Amino acid sequence: MENKEPVVDTPEAQNDLPEVERLRGEVEFLKAELEASKNKFLRLYADFENYKKRMVQELEAAQRNGKFDAVRALLGTMDDLERALGFASVKPEDLIPGVKSVLENFTRSLKSLGVEAVPGVGAEFDPRYHEAIGAVEGEEGKVMHVYQQGFKYGDLLVRPARVVVGSGAKPEEAEGPKPGAESN
User: Fold this and answer.
1) Where is this protein primarily located (predicted)?
2) Residues 6+ apart with CB under 8 A from 135
């Protein structure tokens, strides 16, 4: 008998070599793509972290600028009050017009900052803007008296107005006709 050695170069083995090489190439390509994606992710992550830090700084700067504008607007009121006190020591009767002027200037300062008064006497009672502290005879649901002015800043309520609301009842309606009373 003749001894045959196994042949390594079979057609099937030759077909597998290009497949292995193709797969190795694909693995190398995928490794390179993964590395590129990882680098892109790291750059984006670093950019996002820098963006967050920058936004915190910008927010702090905006808050600081807002406070600065408010202080600047209110300093005029302090100056006016100091002048009013100076006049009061000379002529106390001049104090009332001076205080009225200070109040007007202060109201203008608040308005310049975007602060508005909540509707007061004669307005419909609105629980979003008013805090009822009492009720009196008068048109039902209307604000009859303001004890403390309320203010809003845009859509935000800074402080509700403390008000007295009309109850709608009149003394004679509340008591009603007396039984057995005759009218002439």
Assistant:
1) cytoplasm
2) 164, 165, 166, 167
> For residues 167 and 136, is the Cβ–Cβ distance under 8 A?
yes
Whether residue 174 is predicted with pLDDT greater than 70 in this model: the reply is: no
CA angle 4, 7, 10 (to 5 degrees): 140
Residue type at 79? D
What is the distance between the alpha carbons of residues 101 and 97, in angstroms, rounded to a whole number? Answer: 6
Cα(121)–Cα(114) distance, integer angstroms: 22
pLDDT given at position 3: 53
Contact 129, 143 (CB under 8 A): no
Quick one: which H or E segment has residue 108? helix 95-112
Q: In this predicted model, what pLDDT tens digit does every residue of 86-107 receive, in sequence order?
A: 777 777 777 787 788 888 888 8
DSSP codes of every residue in 137-180: SSSTTBEEEEEE--EEETTEEEE-EEEEEE-S--HHHHH-PPTT
